[in-house]
Every structure is written in C-alpha cells, then in structure tokens.
Fold this sequence. Notes:
The complex is a heterodimer.
Chain A: E1 2-11, E2 14-21, E3 24-29, H1 35-49, E4 54-58, H2 65-90
Parallel strand pairs in A: 1-4
Antiparallel strand pairs in A: 1-2, 2-3
Chain B: E1 2-7, H1 24-33, E2 36-44, H2 49-58, E3 64-75, E4 78-85, H3 91-102, H4 114-121, E5 127-130, H5 141-150, E6 159-160, H6 164-172, E7 177-178, H7 189-192, E8 198-199, H8 206-213, H9 217-226, E9 229-234, E10 244-249, E11 252-257, H10 263-276, E12 283-285, H11 291-294, H12 315-323, H13 332-340, H14 346-350, H15 361-387, H16 389-446, H17 457-478, E13 485-491, E14 497-506, E15 517-518, H18 527-538, H19 546-555, E16 569-577, E17 580-582, H20 586-599, E18 604-608, H21 616-632, E19 636-640, H22 644-647, E20 654-661, E21 664-671, E22 676-679, E23 687-688, H23 689-696, H24 700-705, E24 710-711
Parallel strand pairs in B: 1-2, 2-3, 6-7, 8-24, 11-19, 11-20, 12-18, 18-19
Antiparallel strand pairs in B: 3-4, 4-5, 9-10, 13-14, 14-16, 15-16, 16-17, 20-21, 21-22, 22-23
Helix pairs in contact in B: 1-2, 12-17, 15-16, 17-18, 18-19, 20-21
Amino acid sequence: MATHNATIERNDSGATLKLALGETVLDILLTEDKPNDVKTVFNKLLEQLKSGVFDFNLSDEKEDLYHHICKEYITQLNSELKSTYKELEDNELLKTEE
Amino acid sequence: MRIDIHTHTKKVKQGDSENRNIDVDKFTEIIKETDVKILAITNHNHFDNEQYTEFKTNVEGICQIWPGIELDILEEERKSHLIIIVNPKNVEAFEKKVNDIVGSTSVDTFTISIDDVVDNFNEFDAIFIPHYHSKKPNLTDQDIEKMLSKISNPNRVLKEASNSISAGIYINHGHNSIHGSDVQNWNDYVDNSKSLPELRLPVESFEQFCLLLDKDDATINTILNKKKKETIQINPFNSAAEIMDIDIYNDINILFGSKGTGKTDILKALSKYYNGQGFKTEVYESNSKKIDDVFDLKGTQLKIDIDELGIDDCSVELASLKNATEKEVTSLSKYLLYYSADATNKISKNIKVDKFTPLDENASKRSYEDTKSNFRVFKEFKDYYSDDVKLKEIIGVELLSELETVVDRVLEKISSESGKRFTDYKSISFFNNLIKLFVSEISKKTGQPEKPTRTGFSEYASNRIAIEKDVKKILENISKSIEPIIEEVGNLGDKGKLYCKTNLVIQNGKIADVKYRHINSTTKIPQKSVAAQIELISKHINVNTLFEKIDELIKIESSESVSSISDLLLFHKHFTLNDDFYTPSNGESSMVLLHNELMTDKEIYLIDEPEKSLGNDYISEVIVPLIRARAKSGKKIIIATHDANIAVRTLPYNSIYREHDISGYYTYTGNPFSNSLICSSEKKVNLDWKLISMKTLEGGKSAFGERGKIYGNT
C-alpha cells in the first residue's frame, strides 16, 4: 500500500491541509467551509483509489489546533479510503493493468 | 399412382439391350422405389408366363402386373409395333395363344397382320396400343382405322406416344393416347418412372381400368364415392330461392364459371359453414393482402423479449440513476469547532470511546448480504426440485436423494458462514453506534460541539460507486449487438429465396438512421437523447458536475418513457434476396403468399382466384403440385378459378360450374372422369365438362394439350 504525504500550510488568513498525490497536491481549506472544494478532492481521491489503495501520513511538528484537526481528519480519512477501496474491489470497478 | 403400359423384362431380339434383362429381386426392389402401381410386361413377340407369375407374386399388394406383348406388325410391307395388354384372368390362354402364333419362328423375324392380331387377341379382353406418329416404328392412321373397324369397343385402342408432351398434343386433338417407359435400362427406371402417366383415380383392377376407358358412370362413381365427401347446404346469396346443396370432397373441388356468377360468395358461405362446425377457415383472396402487412414490416405485432437475447432490461438501474442524489461531506468547521472548544468536564476527558475511529460497516454488510443471497438461491433451487414431481420421475428417487444430501450440506455451510458474517456486521454496527451515542451524549452533557466521526468520504464515494456501477451496467447492455431475425418468406424460383429480415439495435445515442423505428411505441420518444445523456453521465462520475448531468437527464422531455433498455430497442424490418435489400413485385408477392397459404397445414383450404398476378409456369410447376399434394393427404381444397391450369390440370374430383343466363343462375356439378356436368336444378341439360372448361377457362385449350401427363380422362 502506498503512503502519501500530508502537510499543513499555515498563513495569516488561515490554514490548509495539503494532500500530496505524486505531483498533484490536493488542498482542503481548514478555516472555511467550502463543501464543493472538499468534493473535488474526494473525487480525485476516489479516482486515484481505482489504481490502488493508499493512505496519508501527516508530517507536521507544530502541535496547534490545526495539527489536532488534521491528525483526526487523516486518521478518519485513512480508514474510509481503506473501506472504499474494498467497495471498489467488490464492485469490480478497479482499473486493471493493460 | 403411376401406370407403365410398356416394359421389357428380357433381351429377346438381337437388337435388344442387355440391360432389359432383370431378375425378380432387382425388379421388386426397383418397383418399391417408384410410384408405379400398374405395370404391363410387354416383351418383343414373346410372353414368359413363368416370369410373369414370379414377378406378379413378388410385388403383390405393391404393384399390379398385367400380361402383354409387343408385336411386330406387317401391313402392306410396312413394319410397325403394337402393344397388346390382356386381362390377367386370361393369362394362361394368352400364353398358349402367343406360343401357337409365334411357334418356332424366330422372334427377330416374326411378324403378324392387323387382321390376325384382332382375330387372335380380342377374345382375351385386350387393350391395343399401337405405336403412333413419333413413336417408331409406328402404325399409320389408316392402320389404326382398320384396327378400330374390327374391334367391337373402340375405347380399347390407345395410341402410344413417345412422351407426355406428345400424348398431351394427341389428346388435345381428340385422340386417346398414353405413353410408357419402353424401358431400355432398368438402372434408370426409378428416375424415368417420374415422367410416366399418373392415374388420378385409384384403379384397383384391369377391369376397372377398362371401364374408366369407357367412362362408365357407375365405375367412376364407385371410385369417387370411396373418397370421403359431405353434402353441405349453404345460402350464399341470402335467398331462399338459391339455397344450394353441394358435395365437397376431401380432395380438389373446383368452382368455375363466368365472372359475376357468385363464386366468391359461395366460398364465403362455405367458410361460414365450416367455421360454424368449429373449423377455423378464411377465404384466401389473392391480392387482398399486402405482403408488407402479412410479414408486418411496420412491426405493429412485433414483440421482442430482450431478456431472451441475453440483454438485461436495467429497469432497476435506470430508476436508481434517475433518483440518485448527492451525499454531503462532513463540514470542516465541525472539526474546527470541536477542537477549538476546551473540554473542561473531567469525566468526559477520561472517556475514550468517543476518541475511537468508526469501523468499516459497509464492507461487513456487503459480506453478510452475499451469503444471504447465496442462501436464497440454493433454497429456491431446493424448492424447485422438491416441488417438481415430473423431475422426480425423470431423475429417480435415488439420484434426487443424493442431490438433496449435497444441497442440504451446502445450505448448512452457507447458513453457518452467514451467521458469522451477521455477527461481524452487527458488532461493527453496534460499535459505530456506540461511538455516535457517546459523542452525542458527551456533547449534550458538556455543551461542547460534537466530535465529527467521519470525513464523509466513504458515504460520498459509496454513492458515486453505486451510480458508476449502474451506468456501467446500462451502457454494457446498450452496446450489445443483436443477431437479426430471419424468416423465410418464399421461393422466387431462379432469383432465389426471399427472406424477411428484422434488424434489431439498441439506441446508443448515435443512431440517426430513420429506417430504424421504435419497437414499443408509435409516439416519438427521446431514446437518442436519453442514451446520449447516459453516455455523458458516465464521463462525469468523478466530477462535481455529475448531478447536473443526472438532472439534465431527468429534464429531457418525456424521459420518463424510457424506463428500461427495451424502450431503447429499434428495429428495421425488410425483405432480402441473396442477402441484399429487396422489394418484391406484386407478382412475386402473390407467389409467395399463395405458396405460404398452401404450405400452412389446414384441414380446409378456401382459395379465391389463386391465379391472379401469377405466371402460368409458376401455377403449373409449383401451385398445381402443391394443391395435388394437399389433396393426396385428404385435405379439402375448394378453389374458385378462371384458370385452366388449376381447374383442368389438377383433375379435380369435383367441378362445380356456375352459369348465368336470362332466366337466372344455375349450378352444375361433375368431374373430368365422367366428362359431364349435371345441373342441380335439373332445369338444364347436362354439359360436356371438357367443352365447358375449354370455353370458360383462360388457357383452356393448352391446358388440355398437356394433360397427357395425367391419365384420367381422354
């Protein structure tokens, strides 16, 4: 199983969870509610899962509010990625290597 | 039933072929392969009673063998041949006479005069058949006149033609004529026998044949009466004055007469009568039906069960797709709220349950449902074989018992596994509910926000997976190709066979061919738009605009009319000839429709003017043999016709003639064998069947010209 890197980007206006999928980085804004942005990220994660199961590892040293939020979020997301991969597999929707 | 009045079983003369020699076993074998039921042995200037008896005994019940001879005639220095066939009852005396006359003279040089022939053989109840015209060496008309003047019954003289066409021409010119095989090589006999004259009436003896030559009414009626017939009373013109009693034979019944004499009305009245008797009849009227309608090119009666074609109708998937809604994701602000609030309650800080991550409940649920589905299928299978008494009879109690044991074990195993999976599923479900409950209760007691337990990704993804699965299944079934349905329409002779082809396709959003029409609906439905939109949805499964595309599908006008793959089925039905699109002409349409009518197995055929739009060759070569084949199998065939090919060449057991004059309408009945037509009201004198047929029917004269093929009435 591949493990991808997750980081937190903090700035004056707020913070963003950054999920790195190879060269693509998916952003989830922590300080604003933008469901459509989250859905865009989820769509990309779902598409990526078809090529194989993976999870995220949070690389962040600063133990602030955003760190706790992201740690919980990544834990939950990893669990859900795993169960969704199983569901894709059960429904024969995984990409087969040609 | 065919007759051969001229055969050779021995090489007698020097010039005879060796292949005329045949032994009894081979003779019997050959005769069994043919439809020849009467055969005369007529060797040159020679009669072998021993061989005759042996052959006769061996084919008893299969073929009648009549004794005869082919004599060399010498008349005024002219040589010719004459066949004599005698009553089998006189065979012994005939043999003695032949031996006396031929004596020690060589068969190669033996000759006899006409006077001596008549003087010596007339007493044996003989039939005289001189070679005539193109049948060489032939007697002249003068020789035959001489013979006729000496024979008491001129009907006993038949002129032998070289083939059926010549015989037909002689008959047409008023000569009594017949032809035989004059067998040269018995190895060719089976094939050659197919062109021998056919006896329309089942002749049982030599005497009966002679009476038929005399057109003896009693004999003809005796034979006809052996055929099943019924007398029917009909009122075709709804007039008490014209109630008709007509005989209908289980054979060919021809209704003929000038136009406007009510033939069609009579057929319709017969149809009404038979329908009242419980038969299902209909008058077949040529040109009344269009071939396009008979073969339903418009597809009004077309019913296609796509399930039988291996295509799923996907009605569940289409309904799910139309009802699909987006699943919302967990708002990030919930996490922010929860972690921003400072947990002050000491007890709540110590509780760990709310810190757990929920487990994957969906996977365990699917796993449990798989076993549930397996159990149901096996249970249904068990119910099927347990309830099927006939299956029990077929496979036997022992085998069924073995099956029962195996199936019970399988059910037990599935049940056990199902139990385990149910426990797993419920454990996870309870655990997740426990977390939810703690999160909720802690929030209520402490006033702190609830801790989010899921990001919402799995529900979100699960929803999209379900949509993708449905769309995939729908598109897979849409893309399936269907083999065309091909049914034979009929034979167009040299052109080949005409077929009706039903091409079936499923609208995939790209088919724009106007020839393809919707199979289930006469009104326009948006198949193309719906199929194209489903294809478009498949490209937006993992895109935010997925539900916009689904909404566009729902908003397509009348999209609700497409609720299954069946609603996307299109057809194009047409005729083909040699695999190419073909539109049959009116004549070709009439050909195949009549052919199909006669090919349909019925008890009663009522056919009005079958000759319409048809060529003489087709009537003679296809229709007449078909009618006769039906008659042979005891069907009632009643045909109103103006065509001599049908009215004459079928040699009907029953001819009904309608006549009209200034005093009214008259009905005559008769047949070609007695050659008479008798007025049912007895107001008119009897008519000559042949003369009336020739006068009334189209192509009458030429039809009589070819009747030599069928020996019934000369």
